[in-house]
Write a structure and sequence with these properties.
The complex is a heterodimer.
Chain A lengths: L7 E3 L2 E3 L3 E3 L8 H10 L3 E8 H16 L22 H14 L4 E6 L3 H14 L3 E5 L11 H18 L4 E5 L6 H10 L4 E4 L5 E4 L6 E4 L9 H10 L6 E4 L6 H10 L3 E4 L1 H6 L3 H15 L5 H4 L17 H15 L1
Parallel strand pairs in A: 3-4, 3-12, 4-5, 5-6, 6-7, 7-8, 8-11, 11-12
Antiparallel strand pairs in A: 1-2, 9-10
Helix pairs in contact in A: 3-4, 4-5, 7-8, 8-10
Chain B lengths: L8 E5 H11 L3 E4 L6 H12 L11 E4 L3 H13 L4 E5 L1 H16 L5 E6 L14 H4 L7 E4 L3 H18 L3 E6 L7 E5 L3 H7 L2 H9 L19 H7 L1 H5 L1 H16 L6 E5 L5 E5 L3 H14 L4 E6 L1 E3 L3 H7 L6 E6 L10 H17 L5 E6 L9 H11 L8 E2 L23 E9 L4 H15 L3 E8 L7 E9 L12 E6 L14 E10 L4 H4 L5 H10 L2 E5 L1 H7 L7 H12 L4 H16 L4 H14 L3 E4 L21 H11 L32 E5 L9 H5 L5 E7 L13 E2 L8 E7 L9 H5 L13 E5 H17 L13 H5 L17 H11 L3 E5 L3 H7 L16 E3 L6 H26 L7 H7 L5 H19 L7 H10 L7 E7 H7 L1 H9 L5 E6 L34 H6 L5 E5 L5 H13 L4 E6 L15 H7 L6 E3 L10 E3 L8 H5 L3 H9 L1 H26 L24
Parallel strand pairs in B: 2-3, 2-4, 4-5, 5-7, 6-7, 10-11, 10-13, 13-14, 14-15, 16-19, 19-20, 20-21, 28-29, 28-30, 30-31, 31-33, 32-33
Antiparallel strand pairs in B: 1-8, 6-12, 8-17, 9-11, 16-18, 17-18, 21-22, 23-27, 24-26, 25-26, 32-34, 34-35
Helix pairs in contact in B: 1-2, 1-6, 3-4, 6-11, 12-15, 13-14, 16-20, 16-21, 19-20, 20-21, 20-22, 21-22, 30-33, 30-35, 31-32, 32-33, 40-41
Classes of the chains: A alpha/beta, B alpha/beta.
Amino acid sequence: MSSTDLAIDYLGLSLRCPLVASSSPLTGNLDGLRRLEDAGAGAVVLPSLFEEQLEAESLAVHRWLETGAESHVEAAGYFPELDDYDLGSDSYLELIRRAKQALEVPVIASLNGTTPGGWVRHAKSLEQAGADALELNLYGVAADPALDSEAVEARDRALVRSVREAVSLPLAVKLSPFFTAFVHTARELVASGAGGLVLFNRFYQPDLDLESLAVTPRLVLSARDELRLPLRWIAILHGRVKASLAATTGIHEAEDALKVLLAGANVAMMASALLQNGPEHLALVRSGIVGWLEAHEYESVRQLCGSVSQGAAEDPNAFERANYLQTLQSWPGDYHR
Amino acid sequence: MGIVNDQERACIDGNEAAARVAHRLSEVVAIYPITPASPMGELADTWSALGRTNLWGRVPEIVEMQSEGGAAGALHGAVQRGALATTFTASQGLLLMIPNLYKIAGELSPCVLHVAARTVATHALSIFGDHSDVMATRQTGFALLASSSVQEAHDLALVAHAASLRARVPFLHFFDGFRTSHEMNTIALLGDEDLRALIDEEALAAHRARRLTPDAPVLRGSAQNPDVFFQAREAANPFHARVPELVAGCFDALAHRTGRRYGLVDYVGSPDAEDVLVVMGSAAGACSEAVEVLVDRGSKLGLLVVRLFRPFPTDALLAALPATTRRIAVLDRTKEPGAPGEPLYQDVVTAVATRAMAHGEAPPWVTGGRYGLGGKEFTPALAKAALDGLRAPTPPHPFTLGIVDDVGHTSLRPDPGFRVPHEGVSALFFGLGSDGTVGATKASARIIAEHTDLHAQGYFVYDSKKSGAVTVSHLRFGAAPIRATYQIDEADFVACHQLGFLDRMPVAERCRAGGTLLLNAPHAPDALWDALPRETQETLVERRIELHVVDAERVAREVGMGPRINTVMQPCFFALSGVLPREEALAAIRDEIRRAYRRRGPTVVERNLAAVDRALAALHAVKIPAAASARRGRRKPVPDDAPDFVVRVTARLLAGEGDLLPVSAMPVDGTFPTGTARFEKRAIAHEIPIWETPLCIDCGKCALVCPHAAILMKVFPEDALAGAPEGFLSKPFRSRELPDHHLTIQVAPDDCTGCGVCVDVCPARSKEEVRTKAINMRPVAEHRERERERFDFFLGIPEADRLRIEPDTVKGAQVREPLFEFSGACAGCGETPYLKLLSQLFGDRMVVANATGCSSIFGGNLPTTPWSTNAAGRGPAWSNSLFEDDAEFGLGMLLAQEQLEGEARALLEKLSPCLEPGLAEAILASDQEGEAEIAAQRARVERLKHGLATPPHDADPAAVRRLAQLADELVRKSVWIVGGDGWAYDIGSGGLDHVLASGRNVNVLVLDTQVYSNTGGQASKATPRGAVAKFASGGKSMPRKDLGMIASAYGNVYVAQVAMGADDRQTLNALLEAEAWPGPSLVIAYSTCIAHGIDMARSMSHQKGAVQSGFWPLYRFHPGTDPHEHPFHLDSRRPTRPLSEFLRTEARFAMLARSDPERARELATLAQADADERWRFYEQLAGIERTIPQGEDAGPDGSAPEGEDA
């Protein structure tokens, strides 16, 4: 049994391990959640509750029941009106309740809203259902030509503020990387009430079908080299924002997790590698971390956390522009070898 | 004074009123859908699915049977085994129960049937109310108890159950279909304690003790011989004799609990009345209003309402009649042709005559009249007419009320000025089925009933279309209970939710002088006047009507409610009618929205609330000028040059004036001309398809799938374009058979429903912009006039010579003229494209036997029919017999056809020497295979008929005459038996099986929607596992029956399972092969339906998913004689998608995932296993060798083997 201390604080919660299972189908059912906890996850993030999806469900049920209703003398409607429909939120709340009963590790709920009222209403119900923390998934494609970047960011800040005021849960915000002045944006969101930042969200990118000429949404799992985007920004943000940092995207192996922890992340979140290899893969990553820490004589993850952030690195500029120069300079040597 | 608690009030309809009692007093409920009783079964099923218990804490078991006959059998078994059992039915359904009713009554088994009384089909089907069904049961031994209002349907339901247990006599409790079953009214509800107070637990224990049990075995249902049967029949008399007394006892107990007192018969009117009306059922409401008014005016009149009809309460009736009675008019809501009078009349005559004989007195003069057949309105003016008739020196008998009988001169003329004023407010709402008007009016009635001390009544009238149906909602409210059992003629408040109605029907004319008219219109208040037709303007001016306008569609659109404008119009009604203080009304509407939509999620609630909040701001008063200014009047219902019958009769029906047509205008035997839908220009589409000629690839798919034949395809030589209007579109037709021809794809702009199915299937896209296809939906307002002009010209282009292009391609089939056009089926209907295709292939020589259901309603419901004729006057001959007997009906047609053809052939042979040399031989030798040979035969027969017109002297004149009558039978005909899955899988299953087994040359087309579509989506045996349907609220637990496999087991039946949207060529081939097969053929056609919960614009392309997932494999079983024949052809590919992926796309499956996710998962897993196993089985079948079973009794041309009476 290793004596290395893997415990870490995230959003004010004390986690037994810095590996967190992020939103994925694996965290959408009790069996997956149990297997993740058994594999050693420090916390689990449930799949996002999408307000847009709930709205669509609600309108769809309404439409089914209204289509053809009271239109013909022999048929008042075409479906039995049942007593209760679970339009998505009921089963989600039930999942939180059951996860809380079944697991010892913190259960983090995730929410993506579309209306200010919806964000607050759902956040409250997630809190009531017993979630340990809440991750606000600021997922959106800013396609409206009438909205400038300031308006988009102001809307996000207002939203974080309104949820912060409505619930007392620890609050993280999951962001996309598409901000011009990311550090400023991050600080503003923290000032608005975010206790943690999760970097970065991966959008479902549309694809085209060459036969049907139709647009087809397709999910592509992350690859390891995608890690470097969050790595950079975590290194830059560490120490500059008073918030926990979580890295997500591209963390497949222990080396990946160690890198983001070194850069300053409190936790390394995993999804794609677990979907590919099963929840038990997390245990392998965990033991890899332990092995590396022991080999390098670290006593705890806390020691490690942020030790190669921009503020702590030997060459802080390496995380910014210079990074590119160094890469170019390295080529001739390699070439002649 | 008894225990009259503060009884809970509710505004519900008669069906719910009865079902609320029946469900609580039953353990076994056997059901089968039939209008207008279906809602009782649906409610019971839903309540049990939700775990609602009966009075004894058990959830009643609801079982759907395959027919009403089956339901009666299950009911019989349940009561024999000691349960409390009930069923709900009407009309033909009740008739199917009759054999069992005799048994149940003969065995003195207590139980109750609740019947929403409906006309029995005669010359025509009618879903509306009269007593012809109930009267057919009066000698079964059941007690018959009649309710005349919604409150009574509730109260007397209890009395029926309670009295039946006490008397051991089964009860039939009935109330008038639609008028009571579907009328909403404010009633006081019976609590469980009220029910408990009337149910005699000792009688229940005695019922239990009589149950069949091996613990105390008995024999019941013996066969008896002449020695004892008669005596045994008389042995039950004391039980029947006690019924009136026991019912009266139950009435007393009910009065003690509730304060509501009923009698076996009830009398109202002057105590010294000389003239008395006798009625039963809902007419009591109109009659009592009339009698009260007339008595107030000083007339000595009375009304006797009969509640217990069997056993007939002679003593109570005689006791209730004032001694001063001199004349009696008995009104019957049924017709018994040939009888000296209708049933109630005869019973009253017998009662008064018996007493008169006993006392040596002269009896009162009794006359009898018929009223209200097939749901005909019955008003106080008609009640007065009946009473006025008694004053004639010789009171007329029999007489009729409510029609003009200019043939038998039986009708009494009502006083046109006689009305009973309504002490309250009356309102009429004109809407579309799809805009939520009926739902909103029901909600308004509930709001008034539950938020005020007022009483409210709602009644709803629909036209017969399934798409673009017009609804008229009638709402009355007032301080006193509302007894008016008739429609509102002139209202205080009229709302027109669709501006276009003003051009089609009188709307403002239904508003009283000084009343209020509210219009939904996209016009500013100062621009509205010019948009109104002349008749409306004149009425508004003359009657000084207050006019208001609201752009409800804009408000609904802005809040995301789409076309549902109900929650915009409703607040406007409350604000203008003043029934409640405005803020109170708004608060009540908001409460109702939260209550009604809570289960559908906050989004739906919020959007409806937003509509309410914005409605009043959008409501404006309109100033009415001093005089009408419009030149435009209402449009004519049909063109002036329409055929005589259409102008004389159909046009009146279309104008809503059918009630005014006299008896002489009606065909005497229910025979109507076809081809009338083309005159009914409904113009209901908001968008219509517009052809992009350069992109078109001539495939014909748009025309093939159009459910309404509103996209038509014609090919023609270029010279046919002479005189075409400017811009008329055509293009060169790509065809080897018809070179140098042009093609036009033309929309019928006023017949299109805007469903969009044609655009969805169009495979041709613009290279520059993929969303632009060769046909695209465009706003009708921008295209209507131009397309009307084009369509008129298009109609005049001659049809292509069908012999020059084979029908075995979509293109080839679609250049043939459809003889099924412009039906009122639902937009996007999946059934009609098959019928249209059938009409294109065989329409000019086709006879259709059509089972009752959707296809008989869109096919044969007046005022018009889509079945049509070609230029030669030929077309499908169509008839509907019943729901249950369609296969037998079609077989009968075939047998007759074969006889007539056989006789014609024999006569032809006999007359051959007298005819043109070689003609008879050529006719007799023709195999008539293929269209060209059929056309040649038709030409020969024309020559034959010509020859027979001037026969040689040596020809037998009688034979010539007979052959002339039958000569046309020498041209091949095709019998098609058409119906839905409710018929084929359930109620008609036995008959279908027998007809398929007959080996005869019939063609069966099953339009399989996997659900009883016409009555609102009840489960059938075609319903797949996991689907939610009515009567399967918790998801159907068993897989669908594989009808095709059952039929193919005979070996000589051609069977195909098709889905036009998935593979149109396979469908086409199957229909051609089925028709060509000389034995029985069965084509099972997957038919998308709104009851599937899909986007009906994708009705056809959606079917691809059904096939790709293995949900609906395509196959043809083509019997053959080759010993190495592989008759089974699997036409679809091995499934490429998981079934669950397809199931997710349909609400019928997705609903269960929302209401019971665990069960949904379980059933989906089983459904996948069903599909896998079915595919495995079919793949093996594709490899088997089989030949037609040999033997003279089994071949396609053989007759059925002789049966033995088992």
